[in-house]
Amino acid sequence: MSLAAELKSAVTTRAALLVLGVFALQLLFITSYVGALHNPKLRDVPFGVVAPPQVSAQLVGQLERLPGDPLAPRTVTDEAEAREQILNREIDGALLVNPARTTDTLLVASGGGSVLSSALDTLFTRLEAADQRTVRTVDVAPASPQDFDGLSAFYLVVGWCVGGYICAAILAISSGARPANPERAIIRLGVLALYAILGGLGGAIIVGPILGALPGSVAALWGLGALVVFAVGAATLALQSVFGIVGIGLAILLIVVAGNPSAGGAFPLPMLPPFWNAIGPALPPGAGTWVARSIAYFKGNDVTGSLLVLSAWAVVGSSITLVMSSLKHKPGREPAAGKPGAATT
What we know:
By secondary structure, this protein is of the alpha/beta class. It contains twelve helices and five strands.
């Protein structure tokens, strides 16, 4: 047998295409992670200014004109309002100006990402020094001492996402990427739902009572975890039902390649480049990380939008899986189990 014939026999066209797909996925992985995280900068950070009327408008204008547009400043009535907006996740920090003294107060929230709060501290230390003033930083929603750099919520959600698409992938690898009929699609979704409930509980217990990494309600984190796992798994099942085994790669593309670097984990959303800042909240890792931090540090505020995003992934993924299982196999035409050509689950 010639070398060309041996090569053709050893590496099928399908295998070659899959290898090329993996190669593209590898390059996209590098591009996405390095592109998102190699040069973090403050960009349009929602920021409050509390100052006497005669200076507030001028100060807001000065902050708006900073090179690189690091801040999106707005006037806030008083300190109480500034704290409330931070806890409601409407702004990421605020400057309280005291004209009678040379020291102003900077409010931050390291629970939303200590890298962001540190960057704001560095920025205002420099700006205040230029005016012969100093700044005192107050952390309104501090991250737990056991939560280094505020990353525990992100890693928790990443773990849930990994569980979701691996569970769906195992169901496909063991019994065929496309469910043979709607009944078997329902079985897969049911198995995924049970796995999601257990996975959500396990993650919540590990980061809470066992490690003490995240404060907040264990029950709330459990519910979030179950939703994240099911949303990612349902999306993976849907992609598999449409594209076959290639759907697993597409799920990795969405969740790992695009979703993880844009989730606001290592660097909060205002520090990411525009593309990743835009897609992050719409993908499960970003939506899940936002809710997890809100539960842990912001009294559960501002979670509705992100929960709707996760619910949409779950509902749409489940619906596509059921619809495609109906289209692929007409009722009454499935081969009997145990006979040649019998359909798999």
